[in-house]
Amino acid sequence: MALPKRRHSKTRQAKRRTHWKLSVPTVVDCPRCHAPRLPHHVCPSCGFYNGRLVLEVKEKEKKE
Ligand SMILES: [Zn+2]
Questions:
Q1: How far away, in angstroms, is 24 Cα from ligand 1 center?
Q2: What pLDDT is stored for residue 55 in this prediction?
Q3: Within the chain, what is the greatest distance between any pair of CA atoms?
Q4: What is the pLDDT of residue 62?
């Protein structure tokens, strides 16, 4: 197998990793209960999607 002749410096490694970053996920407001939810996802707070109940949420988790 090929073997690198010289090790890459810490600076070179850091430069490469400037593109290595986390992105903040997009969060939208639920139109029914205004809790933050992910777009195109059922609201985890009220269980509604597209104005329709699609998921029963337990009482203790409900925030209304
Ligand atoms: Zn909701």
A1: 21
A2: 79
A3: 64
A4: 52
Distance of alpha carbon 53 from its chain centroid, rounded?
Answer: 23
Average pLDDT (56-60) is: 73
Distance 15 CA to ligand 1 centre (A): 42
Residue type, 18: T
β-strand partners of 55: none
C-alpha span between 10 and 61 (Å, rounded): 48
Please report how many Cα atoms fall inside a 13 Å half-sphere around the Cα of residue 32, on the Cβ side. 16
- pLDDT at res. 37: 93
β-sheet bridge partners, residue 28: 37
